[in-house]
Design a protein that fits this description.
This protein is mainly alpha-helical and 86 residues long. The chain has a single domain, classed as Barnase, Chain D. A two-stranded parallel sheet has the order 1-2. It is globular, with a radius of gyration of 12 Å. The two termini are 15 Å apart. The mean pLDDT is 80.
Amino acid sequence: MDEPGFFCALGEAVNAPGGYFGRNLDALDDCLRGRWGTRRPFTLIWHDAEVARTGLGLVPRTDRRPWTFEELLAFLVDKGTDVRPA
């Protein structure tokens, strides 16, 4: 999984296939405020979390690097989402 794959999978998990739930952290932050298919508090069960952790963690670190699994997880938790890796 890469960063675009993360946002695609999250959108489909929250808003059904083809659903949108952000394409970057600013948009995701807007969505987590209840504007796009969910309202806080909610629980996200992150299936295949280890696949995401591996894929997102393999991205080379640069100034414009994508977010890592741990950073995305921390972002969601910080915004009040109960995340349960599965």
